[in-house]
Write a structure and sequence with these properties.
- Helix content is 37%, strand content 17%.
- The chain is α+β, with helices and mostly antiparallel strands.
- Helix 5 runs antiparallel to helix 6.
- It is elongated.
């Protein structure tokens, strides 16, 4: 909105100082009015609503926000999710909700019809989104269906192994630089690794 009001005056009024200062004052007021009109327009939509409008929607939908950890973008997305509850609630509808809340390829659904149990394996890393998944499923599932959540790990695992040579003093009977080694247990029950000079026939092996 162009709030430069002096351009709307006739040419002969634009040269008068009184009108110039008057238009400067009123231009500032019109700029404030233009900002307020734009704010009202933005608040027509949840995706662009300000803090006050988001709080009004949360009160209307009985949502208690945690403003310490929840961002405005998350709170907007949660409101949109709650407003989009449109029956009939079917499995394809649940799949669409999970794609929106968790993401495609990050969840799996299994239905145990005999035990009336719904299993959802989800890889929701954000705890706030995990809570919203729980609220969504409890809202749209039939009352006699039990919902069970399972963690899902969809990342690849890298497995590696290493091989290392033992110390030359680790086993009895191995040769080291000092010659043959043996184990002598005559020192208070403790094992000691000593270089062998052929004096102990019981443990020396060639």
């Amino acid at each position: 909105m162009d709030a430069n009001l002096i351009q709307y005056l006739p040419d002969w009024f634009r040269q008068i100082k009184d009108y110039q200062y008057l238009m400067q004052t009123e231009t500032g007021q019109f700029e404030i009015l233009a900002a307020l009109i734009d704010a009202v327009h933005q608040n027509f939509y949840v995706s662009t609503a300000d803090e006050g409008t988001i709080s009004d929607w949360e009160n209307l939908l009985h949502i208690i926000p945690n403003t310490q950890i929840e961002t405005q973008d998350f709170r907007r997305a949660r409101i949109i999710n709650r407003l989009s509850y449109n029956p009939p609630f079917t499995l394809p509808y649940l799949y669409d909700r999970l794609d929106l809340l968790i993401g495609k390829g990050k969840w799996a659904v299994t239905v145990d019809y005999g035990n009336y149990t719904l299993y959802v394996e989800a890889a929701a890393e954000n705890q706030a989104w995990a809570g919203e998944v729980l609220a969504t499923i409890n809202t749209i599932k039939p009352c006699h269906i039990v919902y069970t959540s399972r963690p899902l790990l969809s990342t690849a695992l890298c497995i590696s192994e290493t091989v290392s040579l033992p110390s030359p003093h680790a086993d009895m009977g191995r040769r080291n630089l000092a010659g043959w080694i043996c184990t002598d247990q005559r020192y208070g029950g403790y094992e000691r690794i000593l270089p062998c000079h052929g004096l102990c026939r019981s443990c020396c092996r060639k």
